[in-house]
Amino acid sequence: MKCRRLLSSRPPARLRLRRQRGVALVVSLLVFSLAAAFVVAMSSEFMLFMKRSSNVFVASESYAYLRGGEDLAKLALIQDAQADTQAGRERDDLTELWAQPVVPYALDNGGMLSGSIQDLSGRLFLNNLGVDASAGDDDEEGGGSALGVNGVEAFTAPQRRFLRLLQSFEEPQVSEQDARLILEAIRDWMDKDNNPSDFGAEDNYYIDFEPSYRAGNRQFRSVSELRLVAYMTPELYLAIEPFVTVWGDGSLNIQTAPAQVLRTLNAPEQLQPLSEGEAEALVALRGEEGFESVQALLNSPVLANLRVDSSGLTEKTDYFLYSGQVEVADRRSTLYSVLHRQAGQVKTLLRSGGAF
After folding, report:
1. Mean pLDDT computed over every residue of the chain
2. Is the pTM of the predicted complex or chain greater than 0.85?
3. Long-range pairs for 259-263 at CB < 8 Å and ≥24 separation?
4. Other CB atoms within 10 A of residue 288 CB
């Protein structure tokens, strides 16, 4: 009887089978859920991988096009040098092949490539602003003596040109006094000591900034460093950035200098820039063919009576800026390359996608 009771207490076989099927269904659903979650995670990771790969491919393709444009720029500069040698006249002006307007080039994939070359010697050179006038200034009088006419302090010819450039903009307007403050700050930024000049700035000025930093105590390696110099406002930096450079030997090419830079040519005792009308007159006199020579510029009706500083004025350059832009897959990329032409060859000194 006891045995029968035990046997009768066990569930029927059909009920046990249903319970096993229920457990199997739950396990199957759990496995399916885990598999689905794994697939979704894999799919998301795969899509992210594909997007990254696509970005890398587009970036590589864009850079290859930009480097191709740089090579074409080098070829144009080499051909120009060869043409100048054959003509027996070493001169770089705006009529030459490298200076022609940008013509966009259609790519096979539907994108566009464009590029331009600028003469960096058509800008004012920043790294000769730290030279003391007492060390010599090869101005038009040839003595290199400091200037002290009508209360004007001693400045070198490059320093006087820079002071005039700072005052040549309608916005922002810079007074002569403020221009001198900026120049003194630049000179302190470039000298090797930590002793501020009367109106300059050294570490004790920049230490109060947030974040704090120190003066460079060396020459500028990038125009963008000007943003760190005392009294330099963002608005003024944006205004002067297209007209200054850290590349070159300090020469100023009169054949390619824009009107804003030509305004910096004035009498030694005058720290004010030429008027806009006078600069436009110089550009008109230069015309498409350029000035006949540096002396022709100095003898022009605009400058003839001003005894303009002639130091550093030239008609030739060896430093150029290639600016390339490419659009691939609706994405735009830019490359700036500083090119140095010497002895029939062109070398790249710097490549950058931003400041140079």
Report:
1. 86
2. no
3. 259/283, 260/165, 260/168, 261/122, 261/123, 261/124, 261/165, 263/164, 263/165, 263/168
4. 7
Could you read off the pLDDT of 199-216 as tens digits, one per residue?
889 999 999 888 999 999
CA separation for the pair 289, 277 (Å, rounded): 20
Give start and end residues of each alpha helix (H) in the chain. 2-9, 13-87, 157-166, 176-190, 203-206, 234-240, 259-262, 276-286, 294-298
Say if strands 331-342 and 345-352 run parallel, antiparallel, or are unpaired: antiparallel
Residue for token digits 């979650």?
A: 37
CB contact at 8 A, 191 and 185? no
273 and 173: one domain? yes
Note down the domain range covering 34: 2-52
What's the total number of domains in the chain?
2
List the structure tokens of 139: 């101005």
188 and 310 in a single domain? The answer is yes
- Closest to 265 in 3D by CA, of 304, 215, 222: 304
DSSP 122: G
Quick: pLDDT tens for 292-333: 999 999 999 999 999 998 899 999 999 999 999 999 888 899
